[in-house]
Inverse folding.
């Protein structure tokens, strides 16, 4: 009898473990893409976003996630939180976990977008900067749904389509190394300099204009009226040209996304803002 009871208990425990493991796998494969921990969306708004985002993500195999919280974190802490939340909650498609996540901390009024896999190519530093500017404007006006739907979800779709077409949204202008780049730099430096030089030449020329041209200075001196007792050189005019030193760009240049590693060791891009 005791052996039978022991066998039944063992079977029950094994069943519980199997069901718990299955539930965990299911939760990891289908995590919520809209997690409104701060409670700033209505239930209807939450459901609309969740449904639309899930449908698009499944069709394109690219994850888009929204998380709100009230943790009062710094930007550095929020970056780490966003990276880890994405990594450990089972988001992302494919081997590289393609996708992106927007985290909004209502406590510190800070936002951070973390990108992963193909998301690093889709959302460049420049694209993230422009996106977060608009998101923060709407968050500051307490139009939370529009910030998430129009400024984030719809914009990510647009950037995804641009990347798929081979032209990720990035800093305008030709890339370094392209012929157009050097032509642009030459034009910027040469033509304004030519115009300034012409103006300065005319100004200096007008200061030294005489009534009649003479070939020698002696023509202007009355014989015997000038005796030089001291002689020295005097520098009359000077012109100093200053050129601003190029600023270092931490990867936000043409075609660029700065990256870092999260606590899991995975590579992420991203950027944030304040509202």
């Amino acid at each position: 009898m005791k052996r039978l009871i022991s066998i039944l208990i063992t079977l029950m425990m094994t069943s519980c473990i199997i069901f718990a493991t299955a539930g965990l796998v299911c939760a990891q494969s289908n995590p919520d893409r809209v997690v409104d921990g701060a409670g700033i969306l209505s239930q209807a708004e939450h459901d609309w976003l969740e449904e639309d985002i899930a449908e698009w993500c499944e069709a394109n195999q690219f994850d888009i996630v929204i998380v709100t919280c009230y943790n009062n974190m710094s930007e550095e802490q929020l970056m780490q939180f966003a990276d880890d939340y994405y990594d450990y909650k089972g988001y992302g498609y494919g081997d590289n976990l393609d996708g992106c996540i927007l985290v909004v901390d209502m406590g510190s009024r800070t936002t951070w977008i973390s990108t992963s896999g193909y998301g690093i190519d889709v959302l460049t530093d420049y694209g993230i900067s422009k996106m977060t500017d608009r998101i923060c404007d709407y968050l500051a006006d307490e139009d939370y749904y529009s910030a998430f739907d129009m400024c984030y979800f719809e914009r990510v779709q647009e950037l995804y389509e641009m990347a798929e077409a081979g032209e990720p949204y990035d800093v305008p202008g030709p890339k370094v190394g392209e012929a157009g780049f050097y032509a642009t730099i030459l034009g910027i430096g040469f033509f304004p300099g030519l115009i300034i030089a012409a103006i300065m030449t005319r100004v200096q020329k007008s200061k030294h204009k005489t009534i009649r041209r003479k070939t020698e200075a002696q023509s202007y001196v009355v014989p015997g009226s000038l005796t030089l007792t001291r002689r020295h050189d005097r520098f009359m005019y000077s012109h100093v040209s200053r050129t601003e030193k190029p600023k270092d760009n931490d990867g936000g240049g043409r075609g660029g996304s700065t990256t870092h590693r999260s606590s899991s060791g995975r590579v992420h891009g991203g950027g944030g803002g304040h509202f």
Helices lie at 2-29, 43-60, 75-88, 119-122, 125-140, 144-164, 179-207.
